[in-house]
Amino acid sequence: MDPITIALMGGTALSGLLQGNAQRDQAERALQMQQALAQEQMKFAKAGRTDAYGNKVYFDPTTNEWKTQLDPFQDRLVKAGEAEQFRGLTHDAAQNRSIRDAAAQRGRTAGDYYDRLAGQYVNQQPPSEGSIEDELIRLGVVGSDVGYGPNVSRTAGNLPYAISGVQNYQTPLARLAQIIAGARGNAINERNNRATARNNQFLPAMQSFERTAMGGQGSVPDQSTTPKDLMKESGDMAKTLVTAQNNTSRNIGNAFNQTITAAGKPYEGLVKAMSMYKSPTNKTGTNTNTQGYYGGSPETNPLLNPNTYNYYNDQDWRQRQQNMNNGVDTFDDRFYFQGA
Amino acid sequence: MSWITDLFSSPPQASPADRGPSAEEIAAQKAAEEAAAQKQTNIAKRGQAVDASRQAANDYFTSLGLDPNMFSDDVNHRITQALSYTADDDPNIGQYLDNLGQTIYDTRTAANRQNATRQLDLSFAPDFETSRIANTADDPILAAINNEQRGTADDYVNNLVKRGVISASGQAAAEKDLDTQGARVKTILDDLGNTSIAAGRQNLSDIVGRGRSAASSLALGNTFDPTKYTSEADQAYNDFVNNLGNSIRSKVTGPLYDTSKLATIAGSAQGAGNFKFDPSALAGTNVNNPNDPTANLFGGNPNQRRITF
Known about the structure:
The structure holds 2 protein chains of 2 kinds. Chain A folds into 2 domains: 38-69 and 225-325, no CATH class; 105-213, no CATH class. In chain A, 65% of the residues lie in helices and 4% in strands. Chain A has helices at residues 3-46, 72-123, 129-142, 152-156, 159-168, 172-213, 226-232, 236-263, 268-275, 314-325; strands spanning 49-50, 56-60, 65-69. In chain A, strands 1-2-3 form a 3-stranded antiparallel beta sheet, with no helix packed on it. The longest helix of chain A is centred in the N-terminal third of the chain and has 52 residues, at 72-123. Chain A is rod-shaped. Residues 217-224, 273-296, 301-313 and 330-340 of chain A have low confidence and may be disordered. Chain B is mainly α. Chain B is built from 11 helices and no strands. Mean pLDDT of chain B is 84; it is low at 302-309. The interface between A and B is large, with 40 and 42 residues.
């Protein structure tokens, strides 16, 4: 090989080498730029936001969760709800258990009384009509003058009186028949009256004992009604809060999706992790989430009920605002997005 | 140079016995040991649950003032049942023995009540009151009363005949009227008898009703004696039979046969007697009056042949 050829070959190789290095540098710069862009987008995605009520929402990389700093109103709702739940699970539950145990004991006693009354009601019927009629006849005969006859005319000696006595005379048989007829009619009424009185005596008592024997239904609450009562006190403020929470979370999710789309595949894991914070959607992509991320609605969650407790303190609120401005986070972060 | 050969030759392969247990075998053995230990633990828990249930049942009976020994057989029976229903090492047997004492109490109470009711059923068959006091129980008494009443009326008619007030034809008419009245008298007497029988049956029903009430609410630990009610029913029946006559007679305080019109009826049947008018007879003062010029008009007894009402 001649020297010229060798020189040409070396030049070509050197040129290729230099060109390859330039391309590699360009690719590396492009990658760095992409990484920087992705980091910027990720930074944007993780940036804190403020919802409609001024709540600060931020991403906590330590726990890989989005957290919300509650405003004083929400904070007292949370704490009030937690306090109420705590009381419900401790004091109320124990008290209700005691009440129900006592009710069960009363139920057993009432069951015995019910059995006794039922036995009397079924087995001890009121006297029969015949028996009552017999009693009435006996009383009617004793109280009447069945033996009275027309002989009175013989002692009076007064003809008109004697004639009157004969005309008005009622034979003993007729008088007895009259007594029997009257007794029969009265016996029917008397037995009906006794049956009615017996029903009035037994049935209400049996019903009452039966109700108590069934475990005190209607007399003892199944559970504490406090949470239910509190839920009833929900207002528009809490409902609006729930709606705002939904909207805020949805907006955050959309922004994050845009960021992830720009960032590409390396963030699939994060996408998957964050997807749990998105509002559920149906097949048409419509948001179907009707509950706040705090769980439930004011009707079902006392935490969202503005009337649950009222220990709002302006002093605390101002102190917290000041702490926030100073970068000191003293908010209770226990409550955060928990996913739909 | 055998050491060189040994150095490069592979060691002899150990037999399976020499190799010892494999990892899988060790894991399996460990699992078996753990399972056996768990089974023993469960069996122990099972025994504890049974003992606790038995003690709870005894405490329940004691709290009710009952002797737990009375129900030891029931407790053992139910525990045996629960043991047979579950696996040998099922530690959750307690759920089958929950409220054991109360369950036994309720079961025994219901059984005792049914038993007591059954004993009463044997002594007092359904509708026993009717079979015990038959509808014909008052027939002899009613017949006797009717005969007595009719006898009194017959005596009255006979006296009219004896006094010569009515003739044989008049007597026949009077007796026929008494026969007519007899149907009504018998009906009235039947009514009186029926009501008396109803009262007697009611007494028996009340006794049985009280017995059934007591049986249906019999408390566990209390005894039920059906003979108490059978004796009471027997006594009530005897009293009824012995007093039935008085019960009916007490309602018959006057003559059931009306004799006030018999003379008229007899007189209408036999025709006019054409007796001379006697003002004393009309006034009812037909006694011997020495100043009465009509006295002894016919001779003999001055009361004879005068109609008295």
